[in-house]
Design brief:
41 strands, nine-stranded parallel β-sheet, Spore Coat Polysaccharide Biosynthesis Protein SpsA, Chain A, UDP N-Acetylglucosamine Acyltransferase, domain 1, alpha/beta
């Protein structure tokens, strides 16, 4: 069985973290989202994988290369940027010459567990779609069934019609490319339209799964998924841990990392390679720290994500926050959390607990505080003694 992973999208709703990083490469528990899908396939002996790449394709290709590290064989097909035809069906059409017979289709920007792939492969029907329950079905394609057969699929319905949604994970035969050609003639370029076109003529079977599946839609979703992934992480300690360090719960520490005296870590926590933590730092549960991170004395981090090459100076406090790659934070930075209402694409979303989201390579001065729900774009410069409130666009200087 061959698998096709669609990973060409930009992920604009995840700005500022996708300014130069494709959505499938956003780290969850220090691993790219796309890696979870590849490992789920490998665990089910699906080892022939074609990835459709586009936006920032080099980031994906340089990380996974030929797939040998994961025990799979990966080839790549590039989707050229054509905004009017950038849907999932159009992306899938890119692999027409690379696929024969039956194959799987997966999104590259979802967390996917091995059990889900097992459930999909366990069914014998020719055309299959994986469905699951959702508390927010209006964000997805809602599936209506007759037994196990799909009778209708409605994309992002305005009125409630059910809680069963499409995960965007399918099993097709190569006949699907003829259907894609048909819907493209009608100006449709998404796989939901392909399924709708198939339903009257071809049996499409729904596969209900209890396997792991999560979608990253908004920037604050990264924190929730990170916390979920960390619950499955095992303890692993490498590097150097000084005397006077206390650790409780599952804590993973990468090679070359130094944890200095007086530091307290309460898992689940993952710390990458080549980091310098402390002295006297507190790291609380559901926190992931990338590679080459520097964390100054008397700082407190909880339920947060620090991506690679982040510098946190002494006396800083971060809660329910995400700092992108290469962010530098001066002494006594404060990003506390609270319940906030976030606006994105003319929509308002209530987020129970959120601190501050900071895009890559932003430099923040000393004694800066950020109000809960603030978003600071990429490559910004924030002056000392500043209070941040709201959204700051990329490349902005705040005095």
């Amino acid at each position: 069985m061959k698998a096709v992973i669609l990973a060409a999208g930009e992920g604009k709703r995840l700005r500022p973290f996708t300014a130069s990083e494709p959505k499938p490469m956003i780290p969850i528990a220090n691993r790219p989202i796309l890696e979870y899908a590849i490992e789920a396939l490998a665990a089910n002996s699906v080892r022939d994988i074609t990835i459709v790449v586009g936006y920032q394709k080099e980031r994906i290709m340089s990380h996974f290369e030929d797939g040998g590290e994961w025990g799979v064989k990966i080839s790549y097909v590039e989707q050229k940027k054509r905004v009017a035809m950038a849907g999932t069906a159009y992306a899938l059409s890119m692999v027409r010459k690379h696929v024969k017979g039956d194959f799987l289709v997966l999104p590259g920007d979802n967390i996917i567990g091995p059990k889900l792939i097992e459930d999909l492969l366990d069914q014998k029907a020719k055309n299959r779609i994986v469905i699951t329950q959702s508390d927010m079905p209006s964000k997805y394609g809602v599936v209506e069934l007759s037994g196990k057969v799909v009778r209708n699929i409605v994309e992002k319905p305005e009125q409630h019609i059910g809680n069963l949604i499409s995960t965007g994970i399918y099993k097709f035969s190569d006949d699907v490319f003829k259907v894609i050609d048909s819907v493209k003639k009608n100006g449709k370029y998404d796989l939901t339209s392909v399924i709708q076109h198939m339903i009257p003529k071809t049996k499409v079977t729904a596969v209900k799964t209890t396997g792991a599946w999560s979608d990253v839609v908004y920037p604050w979703d990264i924190l929730e998924l990170n916390a979920m992934a960390l619950r499955k992480c095992a303890s692993k300690t490498s590097g150097r841990i000084d005397k006077g360090v206390t650790m409780k719960g599952p804590v993973s520490i990468g090679e070359g990392t130094i944890i200095r005296s007086g530091t307290h870590i309460m898992g689940p926590v993952v710390i990458g390679e080549g980091c310098e933590i402390g002295p006297s730092v507190c790291i609380y549960p559901s926190t992931s720290v990338g590679d080459n991170v520097r964390m100054g004395a008397f700082s407190v981090i909880e339920h947060s994500i620090l991506m690679n090459d982040v510098i946190i100076s002494a006396g800083s406090y971060l809660s329910h926050s995400v700092l992108g790659e290469g962010v530098e934070v001066g002494p006594q930075f404060c990003a506390s959390e609270d319940s906030v209402k976030m606006e994105l694409e003319d929509e308002y979303r209530q987020v129970d607990r959120l601190g501050t989201l900071v895009g890559e390579k932003t430099v923040i001065g000393s004694q800066v505080s950020a109000r809960s729900g603030s978003i600071i774009g990429s490559k910004c410069k924030v002056a000392h003694h500043t209070r941040i409130d709201g959204k700051i666009e990329d490349n902005t200087t705040v005095m």
